[in-house]
Amino acid sequence: MRNGHRLGRSFGWLWGAYGASALGTWLAFGAFPLIAIQVLHAGPAEVAALSSVGAAVGAAVAVPLGPWVEFRRKRPVLIGMDLVRFAALLTIPAAFALGVLSFVQLLLVSVVVAAADITFRAVSGAYLKTLLPAEDLLVANARFESTTWTATIVGPPLGGAAIGLLGPVATVVADAVSYLLSALGIRATGGHEPRPERREAARMRAGDLLDGWRYILADPTLRPLFFNTALFNGLVMAIDALLAVLMLGRLGFTPWQYGLAFAAPAIGGLFGSRLARPLVTRFGQHRVLVVSGVLRAFWPVGLVFLGPGTGGLLLVMGVQLGLIFCCGVFNPVCATYRLERTATDRITRTLSAWAVTTKASTALLTAVWGVLGGLLGPRTAIGLAGVLLLVTPLLLPRRAAASLAEPEPETEPEAETAPSPGRA
């Protein structure tokens, strides 16, 4: 059965590669701020810059990579991005061992890793579409989603234990090794991937940098979904940052309680991702996309009632469980919807533009809400973000797509002779 448990050997290697890198990322969760604080004695402004400026600059660096990668083989690019992240992260333990580690180096590495992350995500979507038929995409994306939440459950506790025993630099080494394992897994997918033919203009023009955004904004169903995910992700991450200040500061929760409040509810993501395909089969893709997108917006506003003690801890865990469950359903359906609605010769540019915007909006909203938290207090700022999240369902697509958007030769006649990247 096509939508059953077996999607082929090549996908198995790709899935294994994804699992290795996801686990490494969550093992090293929070390692950079800890290194900045414990090793380099950085202050709050520097720590904030590490997360916001690094992500924003990394997003800017990734902008020209989408058009550049579009007409190149995807598997070598994926391997290259993994190796870039592997090499960049290894410079941190090397500099630490030599006693020359600096905050500037941490910032530069965070920029390189952010740019490589965005490029990898965009290219992996295009590669997945070449690897599997359309009817298997939701199954594959659901498996990636369940792997993400599994790594979220397992990674932070193991990473916290490793940091306690060996220090935060050790988890950076583990993260670097995970990218090397990912590169090896992607290489093992095998198969011949012919080079997509470039359009007549051999050189990339300045206007090509905006192709991804043009494509998204011209599509009546991708456009609202694009704004919805950018705003939703940015506001949720802004709330998480303020929640850390509120829980670990004024309300007196211990670090293990804070970690438990976010790790345990991740099991909701496992259940949600497992239900995504059965729900789509029964109710249809568009209905599941909209309903799960609406439901996920209602949970965070409940955090405004957070108090101290066991009751407060249970409130956070309940809110996170509901939020993550809805995201577990929404995310693979959304990822599949984007792939199906994007022409095969535009996937990398479109997904790159999507990832750049999401990363930049998250950095911007996190910084803005950090200022609001200082002016209004973290609880009021969390409540404001929660109220704005209630508006995000208005940006969801209101109608199901009439047809899938495959390559449109009439807009680019010179591409008609090129072999389809979707069959590369």
UniProtKB/TrEMBL annotation:
<feature type="transmembrane region" description="Helical">
    <location>
        <begin position="47"/>
        <end position="71"/>
    </location>
</feature>
<protein>
    <submittedName>
        <fullName>MFS transporter</fullName>
    </submittedName>
</protein>
<feature type="transmembrane region" description="Helical">
    <location>
        <begin position="225"/>
        <end position="249"/>
    </location>
</feature>
<feature type="transmembrane region" description="Helical">
    <location>
        <begin position="83"/>
        <end position="101"/>
    </location>
</feature>
<keyword id="KW-1133">Transmembrane helix</keyword>
<keyword id="KW-0472">Membrane</keyword>
<dbReference type="Pfam" id="PF07690">
    <property type="entry name" value="MFS_1"/>
</dbReference>
<keyword id="KW-1003">Cell membrane</keyword>
<keyword id="KW-0812">Transmembrane</keyword>
<feature type="transmembrane region" description="Helical">
    <location>
        <begin position="351"/>
        <end position="372"/>
    </location>
</feature>
<feature type="transmembrane region" description="Helical">
    <location>
        <begin position="313"/>
        <end position="339"/>
    </location>
</feature>
<feature type="transmembrane region" description="Helical">
    <location>
        <begin position="255"/>
        <end position="276"/>
    </location>
</feature>
<dbReference type="InterPro" id="IPR036259">
    <property type="entry name" value="MFS_trans_sf"/>
</dbReference>
<feature type="transmembrane region" description="Helical">
    <location>
        <begin position="12"/>
        <end position="35"/>
    </location>
</feature>
<feature type="transmembrane region" description="Helical">
    <location>
        <begin position="378"/>
        <end position="396"/>
    </location>
</feature>
<feature type="transmembrane region" description="Helical">
    <location>
        <begin position="288"/>
        <end position="307"/>
    </location>
</feature>
<dbReference type="InterPro" id="IPR011701">
    <property type="entry name" value="MFS"/>
</dbReference>
<feature type="region of interest" description="Disordered">
    <location>
        <begin position="402"/>
        <end position="424"/>
    </location>
</feature>
